Amino acid sequence: MPPRTVIEFKDAHGIDSREMKTLFQQETIKRGILCSGSHNICYSHTDEDIESTLRIYDEALQIITRAIAGKDIKKFIEGEIVKLVFRKA
User: Fold this and answer.
1) Which of 5, 13, 22, 45 makes a 20 to 30 Å CA pair with 35?
2) Using an 8 Å Cβ cutoff, are 37 and 85 in contact?
């Protein structure tokens, strides 16, 4: 559905990266957005809501870029890595 979008994090081999997802969630939560990787945009969201979300996503993605460049994403993660839910590992 067009208003429902999903963000996927994959490594250089195209495999899901829970480390990148964890880092993304960590950095967006620090900035006031709780995102599990999917979201629904609706008419109640203001232009300011959307701009703020995009700014926060950009900041989080810049940190992921630095972590990838340093070849040690886990070094940036402050807690546990997210676990798979509702599917087999």
Assistant:
1) 13
2) no
